[in-house]
């Protein structure tokens, strides 16, 4: 199959290598031409994925239109805040029959749109059945080294989801199928916000009890929001739900957890982000998720606390105290 991956960060590069290793004909598009040229010359992403060499069937390209035109399947691996602009840049092309697999996790600021909704708005000629998401607990560093990983391919069309499953599935990268796109996208996006909270707990020096509480009550927030939007509750117990939430809250690879840890240690957000070369999606998502929750009337106190610590300079110890001193409630509400 001819597959184009848009976005040459660590995850886009990892997926391009995985697909090329399956003998697909793969093109990897980088936003900056000079970076694309360096990748093609080095046959390695020295900035984001040092030490993992490109297979012979992986080619790095500079021209977005050429890359999209040549593909039967397009994988969008740009940051969530850049997805609309990237998609709009090739909206004029003939996309009939092409499957678009989004792997970026986030909720769009101001609109509250999920990534599949952003794609459908930016690409008016594309149908919902052409859109899929590939989500789950899958740090690029481990996938690139072929460590066992499981994810879910999701689309409103089971046929499309199975196409994605077949394209990506390997002995080290096991792909399941799901058709609950709302649940998969909401869970995969909001977990980044909860991971920041878990990192803040680490930065404050709290222990396993606090981390378990954040993960569990964070899942409750994700479940309430997704249910309000019409998702299947069972999705929350799956790979894009509890699976992705756990790995992002616990892993040393998690950029969102790292940001939270630094906030918990008293550092300022701008300073933290200024030294990072990769995107922590939960930072912007905290704004978008809170706006969406407020609009829908969904109670998300951990998400609100994360937003206040990131953007209102609320001291982390005070934010935690405020969470703990809220009015006692039943567990299931």
Automatic annotation (TrEMBL):
Sorted keywords for this record are:
Cytoplasm, Lipid biosynthesis, Lipid metabolism, NAD, NADP, Nucleotide-binding, Oxidoreductase, Phospholipid biosynthesis, Phospholipid metabolism
Enzyme Commission code(s) on record: 1.1.1.94
**What are the binding positions for sn-glycerol 3-phosphate in this chain?**
105, 136, 138, 191, 244, 254-256
Q: Where does substrate bind?
A: 105, 255-256
The Gene Ontology biological process terms listed for this entry are: carbohydrate metabolic process; glycerol-3-phosphate biosynthetic process; glycerol-3-phosphate catabolic process; glycerophospholipid metabolic process; phospholipid biosynthetic process
Concerning Pfam families, the annotation shows: NAD_Gly3P_dh_C, NAD_Gly3P_dh_N
According to its UniProt record, which residues of this chain constitute the active site?
191
What is an example of a GO molecular function annotated in this UniProt entry?
A: glycerol-3-phosphate dehydrogenase (NADP+) activity
Instruction: Give residues annotated as binding NAD(+).
Output: 7-12, 140, 255
Q: Which GO terms describe its cellular component?
A: cytosol
Q: Which PROSITE patterns match?
A: NAD_G3PDH
User: What range(s) does the Glycerol-3-phosphate dehydrogenase NAD-dependent C-terminal domain occupy?
Assistant: 180-319
What does it catalyze? sn-glycerol 3-phosphate + NAD(+) = dihydroxyacetone phosphate + NADH + H(+); sn-glycerol 3-phosphate + NADP(+) = dihydroxyacetone phosphate + NADPH + H(+)
- Compartments, as annotated in UniProt: Cytoplasm
- Quote the record's binding site residues for NADPH: 10-11, 31-32, 48, 105, 140, 255, 279, 281
**Could you name the domain of life of the organism this protein comes from?**
Bacteria
Stated family: Belongs to the NAD-dependent glycerol-3-phosphate dehydrogenase family.
HAMAP family referenced in this protein's UniProt entry, alphabetically = NAD_Glyc3P_dehydrog (MF_00394)
Protein's recorded name = Glycerol-3-phosphate dehydrogenase [NAD(P)+]
Provide the taxonomic classification: Bacteria, Pseudomonadati, Chlorobiota, Chlorobiia, Chlorobiales
């Amino acid at each position: 199959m001819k597959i184009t991956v848009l976005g040459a960060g660590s995850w886009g590069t990892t997926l391009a290598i995985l697909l090329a290793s399956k003998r697909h004909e793969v093109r990897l598009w980088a936003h900056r031409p000079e970076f694309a040229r360096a990748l093609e010359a080095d046959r390695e992403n020295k900035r984001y994925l040092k030490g993992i060499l490109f297979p012979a069937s992986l080619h790095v390209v500079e021209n977005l239109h050429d890359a999209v035109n040549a593909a039967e399947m397009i994988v969008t691996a740009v940051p969530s805040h850049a997805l609309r602009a990237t998609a709009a840049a090739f909206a004029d092309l003939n996309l009939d029959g092409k499957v678009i697999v989004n792997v970026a996790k986030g909720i769009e600021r101001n609109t509250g749109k999920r990534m599949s909704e952003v794609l459908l708005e930016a690409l008016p000629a594309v149908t919902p059945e052409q859109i899929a998401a590939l989500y789950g607990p899958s740090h690029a560093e481990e996938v690139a080294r072929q460590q066992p990983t499981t994810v879910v391919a999701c689309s409103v069309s089971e046929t499309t989801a199975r196409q994605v499953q077949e394209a990506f599935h390997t002995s080290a990268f096991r792909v399941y199928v799901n058709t609950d796109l709302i649940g998969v996208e909401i869970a995969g996006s909001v977990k980044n916000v909860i991971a920041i909270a878990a990192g803040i707990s680490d930065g404050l020096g709290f222990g396993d009890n606090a981390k378990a509480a954040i993960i569990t009550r964070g899942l409750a927030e994700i479940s309430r929001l997704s249910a309000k939007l019409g998702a299947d509750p069972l999705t929350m117990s799956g790979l894009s739900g509890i699976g992705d939430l756990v790995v992002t809250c616990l892993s040393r690879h998690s950029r969102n957890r790292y940001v939270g840890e630094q906030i918990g240690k008293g550092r300022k957000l701008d300073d933290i982000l200024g030294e990072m070369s990769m995107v922590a999606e939960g930072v912007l998502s905290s704004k978008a998720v809170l706006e969406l929750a407020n609009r829908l009337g969904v109670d998300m106190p951990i998400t609100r606390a994360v937003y206040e610590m990131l953007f209102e300079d609320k001291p982390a110890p005070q934010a935690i105290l405020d969470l703990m001193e809220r009015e006692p409630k039943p567990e299931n509400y």
